[in-house]
Amino acid sequence: MKKNCPNCYSESLIYFQSRDYNRSVSQEVFNHYKCSQCKLIFISPIPGNLADYYPETYHFIPDSDEYLETASIPERYKIELVQRFICSGRLLEIGPSYGTFIYLAKKAGFEVDAIEMDIKCCQFLDTIVGVNVINSSDPVSVLQQRKSYDVIVLWHVIEHLSDPWETLDAIYDGLNPGGIVVLAAPNPDSFQFKIMGRYWPHVDAPRHLILIPMRLLAEKLEAKGMQKELVTTTDKGSIGWNRFGWEFFFTNLSSNSYIKKVLRLIGQLVSLLFSPIEKTECKGSAYTIIFRKKYK
Question: Which of 14, 145, 217, 230 is the least buried, fewest Cβ under 10 Å from its Cβ?
Answer without folding.
Answer: 145
